[in-house]
Structures are given as C-alpha cells and as structure tokens.
C-alpha cells in the first residue's frame, strides 16, 4: 500500500482471543523499520503513520534507536526519522489505553553510531520506560501469555548488554535483508516461504519471526515489497480457512488485505 491511510481497520482483533494463549502461538502482522518515513526510496519502508499501523492491525513494530547524548532518536541507519523513542512510547500507550485487549510487541534495536553519551544504551532505555510508567511494559525475559501482555508494550531487546525484555536472539529468525537486485526477489520469496513452513510446524513455545522485507542499492524496499508481498498474500490465501500459526510476519508497505490475511483466522480462537 503506497497510501498514508489503510483501506481497512482492525484495532481490537486480539480482544476475543483466549487469555491463556501464549504470544508465541499467534500469527502477528508486523512492519519492518516501522518509523522509516524519510530519506528517499532507498530508506523509506512504510507509509502508514504509527497510530494508523496499530489501527490497521499491526502488532509487531521494529524500532531502530540511535543513542545520542543520553537520548534515543529514531533512525534508519544514518537517516534521522524526525522522532524520538518517547514519541513511539506515547503513541503506543495511547493506542493501548483505547484498546485494552491488545498488546504490542516492540523490537528495540540499537542503530547507527553512538555519540555524546555518559551511560550505556540499556540504562537510557530503562530510564525511558520508567518515565512512561513501568506498568505499561512487559520487561521480563520470558514469553507472556496474551492475558499477561494485554495493554502492554512487550519489549524485544536487540542491543548490546541487553537487560530489558525478551532477548531478540532467542527467537527463530529469518531476516535475509540483502536482496542484490530485483531479479533476486524470487530467491528472497523462497527463503520467506521456507521459514513460514518452519513456523507452521514448529514448537508453539518458540516465537518465529519472518522478515518478508529486503533491499539494497539495486533493489529498493518498495520494489522488493511490490514483488514479495503479493507472493505472500497468495501463499497464505492458499490455505483457505485453516487455522495455522505463522508467528510474526514482518513487511514493508503492507496492504490492508495482506495484514488481514495474516491475522483473520485467529478471530475464532
């Protein structure tokens, strides 16, 4: 979807799923480089603002933070995305206050060079969490049930000396992000499909994380999404109304119809 507004909204799709379900048992639509809106076609990965992503059903977000002067600014590599982590926390908590049955899984990744800091990244992050209210976050290193996670930001830590939340590297991850040219998108899709098959049959005590996104100087994010996202949709659509656990599927520029395809079967769980 190249527009700034989703075609359809599912702001509370988690609400009717059983509290006893582990987060690892769910199929969760997510966005790659969630806040990458600026910097041109090589850098931009999304069109929908964060609040609209949540309303559209996105429940995993990929937040990249540069540690600068004891603050956490949102970056895609060198490019500042005109936001800070506090903005992300504020908008996410506001959404969760309005939709108390939902939970947001938030990967926090250290991005680009650190400068002007007098404390480690994890200390700055802890300070931000405390400033926005510890009760709004799941910061344990174990996978919560949906009942435990409702109304909270579930932190997935991806930075040195991590000490808050679920360790990113404890997930089963497929992130072949380098797609040399658009002619390599069939290989990219093949890897995505292979990992989805692994998630389909894998242990439901394990979180599976599949990145359908990719890019390079020879294949911009929008060009890869334009080729991989339809393949993903038709693949998922081929399973009809079967209830299958796919884990987290992370996308650039997802259309509403694709987001819905990831999440809709769980509405009857």
Automatic annotation (TrEMBL):
Domain Phosphatidylinositol-specific phospholipase C X stretches: 19-158
Coiled-coil region: none
Species this protein is from: Lepisosteus oculatus
Single Gene Ontology MF annotation: phosphoric diester hydrolase activity
GO terms for biological process, alphabetical: lipid metabolic process
Superkingdom to which the source organism belongs: Eukaryota
InterPro entries, per the entry: PI-PLC_domain, PLC-like_Pdiesterase_TIM-brl, PLipase_C_PInositol-sp_X_dom
SMART domains xrefs: PLCXc
CDD domains: PI-PLCc_BcPLC_like
The protein's name in its UniProt record: Phosphatidylinositol-specific phospholipase C X domain-containing protein
């Amino acid at each position: 979807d190249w527009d700034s507004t989703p075609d359809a909204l599912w702001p509370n799709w988690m609400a009717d799923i059983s509290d006893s379900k582990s987060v690892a048992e769910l199929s969760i639509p997510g966005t790659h480089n969630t806040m990458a809106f600026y910097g041109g076609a090589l850098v931009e990965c999304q069109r929908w603002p964060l609040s609209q992503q949540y309303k559209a059903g996105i429940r995993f977000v990929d937040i990249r933070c540069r540690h600068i002067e004891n603050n956490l600014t949102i970056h895609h590599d060198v490019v500042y995305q005109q936001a800070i982590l506090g903005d992300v926390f504020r908008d996410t908590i506001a959404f969760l206050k309005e939709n108390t049955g939902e939970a947001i899984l938030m990967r926090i990744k250290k991005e680009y060079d650190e400068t002007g800091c007098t404390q480690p990244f994890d200390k700055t992050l802890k300070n931000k969490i405390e400033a926005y209210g510890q009760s709004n976050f799941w910061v344990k290193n174990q996978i919560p049930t949906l009942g435990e996670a409702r109304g909270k930001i579930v932190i997935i830590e991806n930075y040195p000396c991590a000490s808050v939340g679920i360790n990113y590297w404890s997930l089963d991850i497929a992130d072949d992000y380098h797609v040399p040219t658009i002619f390599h998108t069939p290989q990219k899709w093949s890897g995505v499909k292979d990992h989805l098959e692994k998630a389909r049959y894998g242990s439901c005590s394990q979180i599976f994380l599949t990145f359908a996104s990719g890019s390079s100087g020879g294949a911009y994010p929008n060009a890869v999404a334009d080729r991989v996202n339809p393949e993903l949709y038709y693949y998922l659509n081929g399973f009809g109304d079967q209830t299958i656990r796919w884990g987290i599927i992370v996308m650039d520029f997802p259309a509403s119809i694709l987001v819905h395809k990831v999440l809709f079967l769980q509405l009857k769980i």
